[in-house]
Amino acid sequence: KQYRIAVIPGDGIGKEVMPEGLRVLEAAAKKHGVSLHFDHFDFSSWDYYEKHGQMMPDDWKEKIGKHDAIYFGAVGWPAKIPDHVSLWGSLIKFRREFDQYVNLRPVRLMPGVPSPLAGRKPGDIDFWVVRENTEGEYSSVGGRMFPDTDREFVTQQTVMTRVGVDRILKFAFELAQSRPKKHLTSATKSNGISITMPYWDERVEAMAKKYPGVKWDKYHIDILTANFVLHPDWFDVVVGSNLFGDILSDLGPACTGTIGIAPSGNINPEGNFPSVFEPVHGSAPDIAGQGIANPIGAIWSGAMMLEHLGEKVAGKSIVDAIERTLAERTLRTKDLGGNADTTACGKAVAEMVD
Amino acid sequence: KQYRIAVIPGDGIGKEVMPEGLRVLEAAAKKHGVSLHFDHFDFSSWDYYEKHGQMMPDDWKEKIGKHDAIYFGAVGWPAKIPDHVSLWGSLIKFRREFDQYVNLRPVRLMPGVPSPLAGRKPGDIDFWVVRENTEGEYSSVGGRMFPDTDREFVTQQTVMTRVGVDRILKFAFELAQSRPKKHLTSATKSNGISITMPYWDERVEAMAKKYPGVKWDKYHIDILTANFVLHPDWFDVVVGSNLFGDILSDLGPACTGTIGIAPSGNINPEGNFPSVFEPVHGSAPDIAGQGIANPIGAIWSGAMMLEHLGEKVAGKSIVDAIERTLAERTLRTKDLGGNADTTACGKAVAEMVD
Ligand SMILES: CC(C)[C@H](C(=O)O)[C@@H](O)C(=O)O
Ligand SMILES: CC(C)[C@H](C(=O)O)[C@@H](O)C(=O)O
């Protein structure tokens, strides 16, 4: 079967790292007899917005909704376009309208990437953050009253649905069950956020009954962030609401040295819609155009995409190639103390794939 | 003037650390000619709840509402009493009903306390977290619909009032202005939480105009937690909503080695009601009764209380004594690699006060 991939480089360094991601995907596809077809799109970018006054064409769903996956660079350029236009007009739209209810991010300490945590070595930190990606704290329900007076107030609702909570928990428990440690940690704050978070806890407890082989625990988000720093070796699969997952999936990669190499998947597990794979880093206007961006986040996201498509061997070959590349100082980009530029680093990974 | 302090040890190790806190307060008071009068209360504890079926007497406000400050140990014992009864029946009640709208916590790397962050030394990390303590995400507005069906959902509102947001920002800007670096960082998430957080940002911008001498910046909470780990030296005063402040004031102390020694103040700056000073740690049922709890959190909270009362010299003398005590391995408790018990550590600090 041939996989059809929609490629959207977006803004800034998105445009620089994507060619390297594609280079490595092509190398892995060739080695492992996987057939990939790429369609390139220029929307979901500042350039497109400048020309058309909107982030995406009206028929964006027809254009990319039938692809097997979407391979995404980065979007946003705060100095030119407000976040709520660029992000809510593309990335968050994909998540909602393609029902990508899982945001999946590995937290893994890689060779060659020094951890800011004292004494942690590759192998010590290796877990997944599973984030609910469509509801929770990122709702659009709320408003403002008595504007510009002393009585002014704003409200915004957090919304958790049975369907929404149960399906993300199911995904997280399944993932935990598939791993050697079979350990799930739930992020809560039911001692302070007294309505939605106790509900989350209740659903975790109910779901846990269906997975007797999975050991599970829960921590309030405040002490959980502390434990990411103090005991990152405690975790295997960590599941959280939209906001808590967002926080943990930036903090986790920070504990492993750099969010510059972290990948992510915005996944619709049922395959009713395409899933989006993108590096965690943004468009980085400050270093865009210099050819120095680290392409590992994009490349690793490509590996996650292959695994999602069922091509696990090809996907793993990329992750292995990343590890071998990072282990060599000269093949790393500047941000990791190396002297390779974006292209040299991408080429190195492509050559390492086997 | 004589200060009247209400002393509430609460549960678990709260009862063990408070005598040491009092010992040190008495030593500092004597040295610096400060007159303190202590009234002891047994409510806000599991013991009291067991006898009376409620956490506090009906007339708790009359009993402690006229004191100059409340010196608090720890409350909660999840195995015996649910958090929403113990915490919402005492700690969170104080915050709301005594309008303690500031939660103030130092993040400081102390001598003798190894940081989990590689290569950080005392002096490298020294900032304050200022947390809104009465509204925001900790609201009681919301509910559940269609229970036990597939359509079930829960909602909970985040509520930010003009009064509530402006007064915490004012406190934070004033604090920043009083410090050598004059730098304020605001925690936001306006790119995802699209109604309340842009309002927070708007109020920060308005307040900043009144403090032209303060440099300020803002970070989304996800990358801000990452920066606590990667660049803790960037911060001077960090202000956040109830939830964001809660997270940052556990993560911050974790980055400085232990939340076991962190102090906090729940402050009503106008002095209309007493403020509560308490260690960040909880009642720690697992180590209660062994005499090994670290009393530094309680002692340091006592120092914050003196400073709040205007006795800055006496307060500082305690913080200095803590630093000198922690620098000696033998005077530290077990959790910090020493061999002193709770009392020995408390006595050491009391003797160091000058
Ligand atoms: C115990 C809990 C309700 C409380 C909070 O979240 O406010 C605690 O974490 C704190 O920071 O004082
Ligand atoms: C850009 C922003 C809206 C987004 C989020 O909060 O979801 C980002 O932080 C992410 O994690 O993908």
TrEMBL record, chains A, B:
Pathways involved: Carbohydrate acid metabolism; tartrate degradation; 2-hydroxy-3-oxosuccinate from meso-tartrate: step 1/1; Carbohydrate acid metabolism; tartrate degradation; D-glycerate from L-tartrate: step 1/1; Carbohydrate acid metabolism; tartrate degradation; 2-hydroxy-3-oxosuccinate from L-tartrate: step 1/1
UniProt keyword Membrane, yes or no: no
Residue stretches spanning the membrane: none
Reaction equations catalysed: (2R,3R)-tartrate + NAD(+) = 2-hydroxy-3-oxosuccinate + NADH + H(+); (2R,3R)-tartrate + H(+) = (R)-glycerate + CO2; tartrate + NAD(+) = 2-hydroxy-3-oxosuccinate + NADH + H(+); (R)-malate + NAD(+) = pyruvate + CO2 + NADH
Any one GO molecular-function label of the UniProt entry: D-malate dehydrogenase (decarboxylating) (NAD+) activity
Domain Isopropylmalate dehydrogenase-like stretches: 4-349
One Pfam family cited in the UniProt record for this chain: Iso_dh
EC number(s) on file: 1.1.1.83, 1.1.1.93, 4.1.1.73
This protein's UniProt keywords: Manganese, Metal-binding, NAD, Oxidoreductase
Highest taxon of source: Bacteria
Cofactor: Mg(2+); Mn(2+); K(+)
Membership in a protein family: Belongs to the isocitrate and isopropylmalate dehydrogenases family.
Function: Has multiple catalytic activities. Apart from catalyzing the oxidation of (+)-tartrate to oxaloglycolate, also converts meso-tartrate to D-glycerate and catalyzes the oxidative decarboxylation of D-malate to pyruvate.
Protein's recorded name: D-malate dehydrogenase [decarboxylating]
Organism name: Bradyrhizobium cosmicum
Native organism taxonomy: Bacteria, Pseudomonadati, Pseudomonadota, Alphaproteobacteria, Hyphomicrobiales
